Amino acid sequence: MWRSNNNNLIVITIKNVVFRYGLKDVTNDKVPSQQGNQGIQVKLKLIRCDALLVNDIHVVDATDNSSNAAASPFFKPQSLSRCFSNAKLVSKKRGFACSALYRPDVQIKEEGLPETLDYRVFFVDNSGKKVSPWHDIPLHVGDGAFNFIVEIPKETSAKMEVATDEVYTPIKQDTKKGKLRYYPYNINWNYGLLPQTWEDPSFANPEVDGAFGDNDPVDVVEIGESRGNVGQLMKVKPLGCLAMIDEGELDWKIIAISLDDPRASLVNDVDDVEKHFPGTLTAIRDWFRDYKIPDGKPANNFGLGNKAANKEYALKVITETNESWAKLVKRSTPAGELSLV
């Protein structure tokens, strides 16, 4: 066991599993011995948790008055999120933890044929069980990076998206009046979503003209040179964001780059994008502003002065939408037709 210089932080390492907890006190910081096949039980008075690597681990609910609350199961490595409230570890139907420092072991499973109405890209764990890319893949991967799920690979036009109203939220091609939808021209970047985020349609953002969320996960525009595949999981770092307003709804676009891109180390904020990817920010804004015009719809608008906000603002957006998602899956916010499985 190692205690940091910060009296409110304790780091515990058990068989290469690292826990970093914020504590109200450290009077009960000993870790009990492993209990049969139930995994490790950690009894601490939690007020926050920065990171967690888990594999069949049970963490005891912590409250202000007792350290002997009933255990909340972390039944799958995919079921991880940042969702503590009032110093209590929250558990409804899904087991919750904090930011996860690992890449989940998931694969994609296609059903149906591409460019048909029945085509679906499901995500399965290593046991073959279907999981939700929106709910079960963790947002955080550590060191300021995030998981990004590719829906639309660069230089393609099929409008693929996570089906937020279907069980296990597979990726499918969007439709309108029973017909498959395509963009009028190829998108020039990898496009997709941040898991475990949600733009709350009941929240009017005072910083963006009072626009309400679009009821979807947060979108990502990944500017790296490699073309992804539908359902591919990338580790990305955010660089900035655009506040697109689509028919009155706020639709954030996080601008990010894959950590595997050869120029990833050169860009760490929005100003670096202009320096090393000149013209890209303007091109992204113009593409999303104009893509509906060929269908006879008006151009989209942008808040925040019609410019890309910096990395700090993008991180704020990610944090707020992650918190909105946590309320959604805890059923503190009405889900409507959204699938929480």
Summary?
With 341 residues, the protein is mainly beta. It has a domain at 106-330: Inorganic Pyrophosphatase (Alpha-Beta Complex), CATH 3.90.80.
Helix content percent band: 10-25%
Remind me, CATH topology of the domain at 106-330? Inorganic Pyrophosphatase
Mean pLDDT: 79
CATH class of the domain at 106-330: Alpha Beta
> What order do the helices and strands follow?
EEEEEEEEEEEEEEEEEEEEEEEEEEHHEH
CATH H-level name of the domain at 106-330... which superfamily? Inorganic pyrophosphatase
Question: Which of globular, elongated, flat, extended, rod-shaped describes the shape?
Answer: globular
- The secondary structure category is mainly beta
Which regions contain 5 or more consecutive residues with pLDDT less than 50? 1-103
The oligomeric state of the chains shown is: single chain
Head-to-tail CA distance between termini: 37 Å
Query: Based on the structure given, which CATH architecture of the domain at 106-330 is correct?
Result: Alpha-Beta Complex
Largest sheet: 5 strands, mixed, barrel
Keywords, please?
Pyrophosphatase; 27 strands; Inorganic Pyrophosphatase; magnesium ion binding; hydrolase; four-stranded antiparallel beta sheet; 341 residues; five-stranded mixed β-barrel; mainly beta
